[in-house]
Design goal:
single chain, mainly alpha
């Protein structure tokens, strides 16, 4: 995919998350809160992260990048994923989601490399914000619970964040067609 497609996909993802946050439903809040410690969500997100790592990163290793050890690196990745499910299961869904965000961010930033600075400014700025959030919540996943308590402590906070994401999604959509 190129910069245009990643800008549109990021715009769509932000728009869906923004719409999800603007809904003033107890079901959406309950779903978000329960998914933090859900075993099924952990398995699903961890499997996505593991397959992304194995098939996008490990399979593309060259000889200079320890390419002759692909099988061993893959086994270590699988061992870490399985062991993390059994030994650090608390907030594993948050950690796995952060892994997926970091992989997505790397792919988007690779597509934006050596493009016109004016064209990629809006996309790259939100991606770097996602990288910072993924690193923060990946290191301290219980802070996601605290953030959600703060976010849903006042209904206007969730709505304003959702509207902000929708507006940024619209801006990204417009910017995508200016490439």
């Amino acid at each position: 995919m190129n910069l245009f497609h990643f800008t549109l996909s990021t715009s769509a993802i932000l728009g869906v998350v923004g719409l999800f946050l603007t809904l003033k439903s107890n079901k959406t809040e309950k779903f978000i809160r329960e998914s933090l410690r859900s075993s099924n969500t952990s398995i699903f997100l961890l499997a996505i992260g593991l397959f992304w790592f194995l098939f996008h990163h490990v399979q593309n290793l060259g000889e200079a990048d320890f390419g002759e050890y692909k099988f061993i690196i893959g086994l270590i990745g699988v061992f870490i994923a399985v062991a993390s499910y059994f030994f650090i299961n608390d907030f594993l869904a948050v950690r796995a989601f952060c892994i997926i965000l970091l992989f997505y961010s790397r792919t988007v930033l690779d597509s934006a490399f050596l493009q016109e600075p004016q064209a990629r400014l809006f996309l790259v700025s939100i991606i770097y914000l996602l990288v910072v959030c993924a690193l923060y919540f990946g290191a301290w996943p219980y802070r996601m619970r605290d953030f959600l308590n703060w976010l849903y402590g006042n209904s206007k906070r969730a709505t304003s964040l959702g509207v902000s994401l929708i507006l940024y999604s619209i801006i990204l959509g417009i910017v995508a067609f200016s490439y």
